[in-house]
Design goal:
By secondary structure, the chain is of the alpha/beta class. Helices cover 38% and strands 22% of the residues. Strands 3-2-1-4-5-7-6 form a seven-stranded mixed beta sheet, with helices on both faces.
Length: 229
C-alpha cells in the first residue's frame, strides 16, 4: 500500500470533510499508520483506533500512546461474520464510526456495513469514503487490492440496508485526471511521489474546484448515515 502521509494537505481535507458529521465517542476503522487519527488527536477529539493489521496497531500504540484523547487501540476485522462474539466489549459503544478508503478492500461490503451498525449506539453516525466510478477501475486499484469502485447511487443503496442516508457527495474532482493518466493510460502500479507532492501543493485550489462543481463529480464518494433504532 502506498504511503499517503506525504499528502498531508489531502489528509487534512478529508478530516475537514468528515468532521462536521462526527459526534460523541468516535471509532476509526482502518487507522493504518495514523494519518487521519493524528488530526483528531491534534484537535483533542477523543477517538478509538482500529486496524485489521496487528503491526499497524503496534505502530499506532508507539506513535500515540499517552495522548489524553486516545480512547483505545484494537486489532479489528470489519468483515468478521462473528463480530458480536469476537468484539463484545465495543458493540453499541460509539456515536460515530468512520472508514476512509477501507470498504473497497473488503470482499463482503454488506457485512462491513452491518458490523458498523453493530458498533453504533442508536442515532449514531456512520461515515464512509470510497473510490468513485467503476469506469475508473484500473491497474492502481488492482495493486491496492480494491474489489470495486462506487457511485453515489450504489453507496446509498448499500447504506439503505442498515442506515438512514443523511447525505452523499463526490470528493476530489481534480484527482480524476491523475488517477486515469497513471493507472489507465500509463499502467503504473503506484502513483509517482513527484505527482503526489505536486497534488499536495495544489490541494487549496482543488478544494475550490470541488466547491465550484457542487461536489457533483469526484475521484471518491462520501456517504453519511444514521442508525435508526
Amino acid at each position: 500500500m502506498q504511503n499517503l502521509s506525504i499528502v498531508d494537505k489531502l489528509n487534512e481535507w478529508m478530516f475537514e470533510t468528515i468532521r462536521p458529521y462526527t459526534k460523541g465517542r468516535t471509532l476509526e476503522v482502518g487507522s493504518g499508520i495514523g494519518n487521519i487519527s493524528a488530526l483528531f488527536l491534534r484537535n483533542r477529539l477523543p477517538i478509538f483506533l482500529t486496524d485489521l493489521n496487528p503491526d499497524y496497531c503496534k505502530m499506532l500504540k508507539r506513535r500515540f500512546s499517552g495522548d489524553p484523547s486516545l480512547d483505545g487501540i484494537l486489532p479489528m476485522d470489519l468483515a468478521d461474520p462473528h463480530f458480536e462474539q469476537d468484539y463484545p466489549g465495543i458493540i453499541g459503544g460509539f456515536d460515530t464510526v468512520f472508514a476512509l478508503n477501507v470498504v473497497e478492500h473488503i470482499a463482503d461490503d454488506h457485512q462491513a456495513l452491518e458490523n458498523c451498525y453493530k458498533l453504533l449506539a442508536p442515532g449514531g453516525h456512520v461515515i464512509i469514503l470510497v473510490p468513485a466510478y467503476p469506469s475508473l477501475y484500473n491497474v492502481l486499484d488492482k495493486e491496492l487490492e480494491h474489489y470495486r469502485r462506487y457511485t453515489r447511487q450504489s453507496i446509498e443503496k448499500l447504506f439503505s440496508e442498515h442506515f438512514q442516508v443523511l447525505k452523499s457527495w463526490y470528493f476530489n474532482m481534480a484527482g480524476i485526471l491523475g488517477w486515469y493518466l497513471s493507472g489507465s493510460i500509463l499502467k503504473r502500479q503506484t502513483l509517482p511521489s513527484g505527482q503526489l507532492n505536486l497534488y499536495n501543493k495544489l490541494v487549496p485550489m482543488f478544494k475550490m474546484v470541488d466547491r465550484l462543481a457542487f461536489n457533483q463529480v469526484g475521484l471518491s464518494v462520501v456517504a453519511v448515515g444514521r442508525k435508526v433504532g
